From TrEMBL:
<dbReference type="GO" id="GO:0061503">
    <property type="term" value="F:tRNA threonylcarbamoyladenosine dehydratase"/>
</dbReference>
<dbReference type="InterPro" id="IPR045886">
    <property type="entry name" value="ThiF/MoeB/HesA"/>
</dbReference>
<dbReference type="InterPro" id="IPR000594">
    <property type="entry name" value="ThiF_NAD_FAD-bd"/>
</dbReference>
<keyword id="KW-0548">Nucleotidyltransferase</keyword>
<dbReference type="GO" id="GO:0008641">
    <property type="term" value="F:ubiquitin-like modifier activating enzyme activity"/>
</dbReference>
<dbReference type="InterPro" id="IPR032726">
    <property type="entry name" value="ThiS-like_dom"/>
</dbReference>
<dbReference type="GO" id="GO:0016779">
    <property type="term" value="F:nucleotidyltransferase activity"/>
</dbReference>
<dbReference type="InterPro" id="IPR035985">
    <property type="entry name" value="Ubiquitin-activating_enz"/>
</dbReference>
<protein>
    <submittedName>
        <fullName>Putative adenylyltransferase/sulfurtransferase MoeZ</fullName>
    </submittedName>
</protein>
<keyword id="KW-0808">Transferase</keyword>
<feature type="domain" description="THIF-type NAD/FAD binding fold">
    <location>
        <begin position="79"/>
        <end position="267"/>
    </location>
</feature>
<dbReference type="GO" id="GO:0061504">
    <property type="term" value="P:cyclic threonylcarbamoyladenosine biosynthetic process"/>
</dbReference>
<dbReference type="Pfam" id="PF14453">
    <property type="entry name" value="ThiS-like"/>
</dbReference>
<dbReference type="InterPro" id="IPR012729">
    <property type="entry name" value="ThiF_fam2"/>
</dbReference>
<feature type="domain" description="ThiS-like ubiquitin">
    <location>
        <begin position="1"/>
        <end position="58"/>
    </location>
</feature>
<dbReference type="Pfam" id="PF00899">
    <property type="entry name" value="ThiF"/>
</dbReference>
């Protein structure tokens, strides 16, 4: 029968997953088996055109092998669109850094990272940085982190503060832009400028994610065409109610998931 094994077509007489593993892999290797998008240790019966990946634990795969693994987990239809996607992220703090990590793990082909700040100790309570990143530009530190997750995606950076004057030049060529600023005034500048001057851009923003209130009130809402807002829209940071990793990460997950839906052509929430 004909199967897709690690992304390549191959004919085999094997009828079960375990017999195929013996044919493909060395006996002393530690292997993860992905069968039609599902990790399994079971000896399943194989069918024509099944998609199978054998991944050796602890070994860095080649670009082709990593892509085959992504395809096997995401399904080909999803991965093809994700790989071609271009997304810009404005602000690389608690929201933006976690959104970027989620999108890199998803395999988004091109991420554009924009921030003007450096990594400092108070960032470590909720942002995707490490002590070793302290003092580095956030754009540089996050690019290093993302390349450790997926070295084959394209990452471009701008170490600059976003203003009304430069917003269009920074983000105007990206079909999807993620607003991930901590400060309301920066949020307003980016959102208002892009909605007015580049209304065709799909913009995913956030409002209301501070503290430790219920995660269930964080939602994604389509405000109007091409503008989506994640959060509870009420709970801002203030004395006695800071920005904490769980709720920040939940809101970042909402934004990343909405971006993925837009990449796949799904425009409802």
């Amino acid at each position: 029968m004909n199967l897709y094994i690690n992304g390549k077509g191959r004919a085999t007489d094997c009828c079960t997953l375990h017999s195929l593993r013996k044919e493909i892999c060395s006996e002393d290797s530690s292997i993860v088996m992905i069968y039609n998008g599902f990790q399994t240790e079971n000896d399943v019966q194989l069918c024509e055109d099944d998609n199978i990946s054998f991944i050796e634990k602890g070994v860095m795969p080649s670009e082709d092998e990593l892509e085959a693994l992504m395809v096997s987990r995401h399904t080909p239809y999803v991965h093809e669109k994700v790989k071609k996607a271009r997304v810009a992220i404005a602000g690389l703090g608690g929201l933006g850094s976690n959104i970027a990590v989620a999108l890199a793990r998803t395999g988004v082909g091109h991420l554009h990272l924009v921030d003007f700040d450096i990594v400092e100790p108070s960032n470590l309570n909720r942002q995707a940085y490490k002590i070793s990143h302290l003092g580095m530009k956030k754009t540089e530190a996050l690019k290093l982190e993302l390349k450790d997750i997926n070295p084959y995606i394209k990452i471009t950076t701008d170490d600059i503060k976003v203003t009304e004057e430069n917003a269009v030049s920074l983000f105007g060529n990206y079909p999807i832009v993620c607003e991930a600023f901590d400060r309301p005034e920066y949020k307003a500048i980016l959102v208002n400028t892009l909605l007015e001057q580049k209304p065709e851009i799909k913009l995913v923003a956030a409002s209301g994610l501070a503290g430790y209130e219920s995660s269930n009130i964080i939602t994604t809402r389509k405000v109007f065409k091409n503008f989506y807002l994640c959060g509870d829209r009420e709970t801002g940071a203030e004395p006695g109610r800071g920005l904490m990793a769980p709720r920040v990460s939940i809101c970042a997950g909402h934004q990343a998931n909405m971006i993925l839906r837009l990449i796949l052509g799904i425009e409802d929430v």
